[in-house]
Design brief:
With 201 residues, this protein is α/β, with parallel strands linked by helices. Helix content is 50%, strand content 11%. The chain contains 7 helices and 5 strands; from the N terminus they run βαβαβαββαααα. The chain has a 5-stranded mixed sheet with strand order 2-1-3-4-5, with helices on both faces. β3, α3 and β4 form a beta-alpha-beta unit. α3 runs antiparallel to α4. The protein starts with a strand and ends with a helix. About 2% of the residues have low confidence.
Length: 201
Amino acid sequence: MTYGYIRVSTDHQTTENQRIEIERFCKINNMHIDCWIDEKISGTKKPQNRKLGKILMKESKPGDLIICTEISRLGRSLIMVMNILQFFLDKGIKVWTIKDGYRLGDDIQSKVLAFAFGLSAEIERKLISERTKLGLQRAKLNGRHLGRMKGQKPVNYKLSQYDEYIRFQLLFGRSKLSLARELGVTWVTLNRHLSRILFKS
């Protein structure tokens, strides 16, 4: 099955231009869109809160093809886009973008790109962690109190910065053991953190 995925950020924007562009592409390449998925929602929203996650990521099957005008339609952050693409590639679903010219599928080039996506996401997570550490160091030099006061329960934990990433990975079938290894913690630590997340939710 071939899906056409369209997204705009607000109700003031129209999806028509993207639809026309995809239809033109399909006509030139003698293709047909079997199912359209269009939504008006910010790309900063988590995939599971959008049609992208609720419909496309759940219903698409190995061998299916997703066509969108550009890769930024999938999300607004590097980590989010990389995780979404990694999900589709792992599931055997092809993703084509018209403006960017990406043709991601079951071939060696796509596998190399999938590795690059995963690496990019890991680099981005490390950069976020590094920025956090530098911010704490500056705060300490400026005389600000770091850490919680005596008797105060912690608000943020070691894995708190990865909450969105953890939810996303588990929602789409990632094993806790595999995820714990990637994050550099034990399965027990990850499971304990998940209990905190669920309790907080």
